[in-house]
Amino acid sequence: MEHYADQYIGGGWRPAAGPDTIVVLNPATEQPIAAVPAGIAAEVAAALAAARAAAPGWAASSREERLAALTRLRDGLAAHRAEIAATVTAELGTPAGFADAVQAGTPIAVASAYLDVLADYAFHEKVGNSTVYAEPAGVVAAITPWNYPLHLIVAKVVPALAAGCTVVLKPSEETPLIARLFARIVDGAGLPPGVFNLVTGLGTVVGAALAAHPGVDVVSFTGSTAVGRAIGESAGRGIKKVSLELGGKSASVVLPGADLARAVNVNLANVFANSGQTCTAWTRLLVHRDQYEEALAIAAASAAKYAPGDPADPATQVGPLVSARQRERVREYIDGALADGARLVAGGPGAPEGLDRGYYVRPTVLADLPPDARAVQEEIFGPVLVVLPYDDEEHALALANGTEYGLAGAVWAGDEETAAAFARRMETGQVDINGGRFNPLAPFGGWKNSGVGRELGRHGLEEFLQTKSLQF
Ligand code: NAD
């Protein structure tokens, strides 16, 4: 087990200032794999001072200088792809195949897409007798969760740097090792000292100190709606720019005329990927009442293919959850759903067979729940799909829009026009049509309690820019 005792501040690794550590466990074995510093407020202040000192120089850098630096960063990510995937598998439990394809592949694609955005972006424009400038917004606090730990770091840090901002990153306490690897890669890219800083630690200490600190101009947060609300309040008091990427309970609507088997099979793959720890997961499958039993039969057969196992084994499709706490939470939701009258289509309570060590749950499909049941309304963040019948299109829309969330969604139909027309009426930030395909240039973010602000593409860059107009 590695004991790390430093934080990345001001262009180098500095001895940790506090005495406490966070022990990182492998969720498949429950064994400790490393300890990292539990940061303290003094380290937050030091990191922000370094970021503030570096801000004018980085803000004044040319587009070409930033493009060159971020190209080196992207190339560093690509060169470390295998180590990235292995690190995420070790500390999060993501199966090796998905860890390579998505946990490592997506951040590389996102970093590449931001190079294109930066190359093309108009940082000033003429509007009548004015010139309107998009200026760097200053010092950014990036606070990230554990479920796509590198993707969510890259989706904040890269556009912030592209905009000319400097950054202090506070990663999740569950996945600090990937953040340390990211800091090493940034270090290798040769950015000026203080442009990027990392402080590992607890959310209630390091995260809260960052969100409240007057030395922060922008708070970019991804995580739960509960913590997002607290961060929004804190940032509001300081009149900081803030973006909040929060929870979801996304609906996947199968309209009559769609390929039902494909829709159900792809939906299960979507919900069980990353053990269901995906903010955009289509956790509510809506099918017409005439196709309800057929859909449940397809789901039962499909679910049987998702046997949990060792995430290091390339054949494994479903690994453990990140922590014992998360496992208990998901099991409570499954137990609660059964108490609420759910029909068990697949999976169920308890541990998967033969897996009493590791934070495993059984990939589960539930039916017959009333629309107001907790398992239908609340984000479970585990491999749990709820199937709901609808009577007609208006009923489907009311169900789809009938939660506090609005992050993602899917619509399946016989033709794309029909699906898109339905998707336009959904209260949500992005909808995949007949399966969709990830686009790192498309804006990503939530409606309602799923958040404010956007990541990715031009919209993501603009979260880190301030507007200034000069009148002539
Ligand atoms: P979380 O809200 O518990 O923690 C997120 C981050 O906030 C962590 O770094 C944590 O240490 C920090 N934090 C905790 N308390 C804090 C406080 N009081 N002040 C400041 N920072 C604090 O979320 P999580 O459990 O790490 O992640 C899961 C959640 O993230 C889910 O709700 C999921 O939907 C959401 N999520 C959203 C998106 C999106 O883009 N919309 C993407 C991934 C995950």
- The secondary-structure class comes to alpha/beta
Helix content: 40-55%
* The CATH C-level class name of the largest domain: Alpha Beta
Ligand inventory: nicotinamide-adenine-dinucleotide
Give the N-terminus to C-terminus distance in angstroms.
Answer: 63 Å
CATH architecture of the largest domain: 3-Layer(aba) Sandwich
Q: What's the arrangement of strands in the largest beta sheet? A: 15-16-17-14-13-19-20
Please give the number of β-strands: 23
Shape verdict? globular
Report what the structure shows.
The chain is of the alpha/beta class and 472 residues long. The protein folds into two domains: 2-246 and 450-471, Aldehyde Dehydrogenase, Chain A, domain 1 (3-Layer(aba) Sandwich), CATH 3.40.605.10; 251-440, Aldehyde Dehydrogenase, Chain A, domain 2 (3-Layer(aba) Sandwich), CATH 3.40.309. Helix content is 40%, strand content 22%. It has 15 helices and 23 strands. It has helices spanning 41-59, 63-79, 81-92, 96-120, 149-163, 176-188, 203-212, 225-237, 260-272, 292-303, 324-339, 374-377, 393-400, 416-423, 457-462, and strands spanning 2-3, 6-9, 12-15, 21-26, 31-37, 124-127, 130-136, 139-143, 166-170, 196-198, 218-222, 241-245, 251-254, 284-288, 343-348, 362-367, 384-390, 405-406, 409-412, 432-433, 447-448, 451-452, 465-471. The strands form six sheets. It has a seven-stranded mixed β-sheet, with helices on both faces. It has a six-stranded mixed β-sheet with strand order 10-9-8-11-12-22, sandwiched between helices. It has a three-stranded mixed β-sheet with strand order 1-5-4, covered by helices on one side. Helix 2 (63-79) runs antiparallel to helix 4 and helix 2 crosses helix 6. It starts with a strand and ends with a strand. The mean pLDDT is 98. It binds nicotinamide-adenine-dinucleotide (NAD).
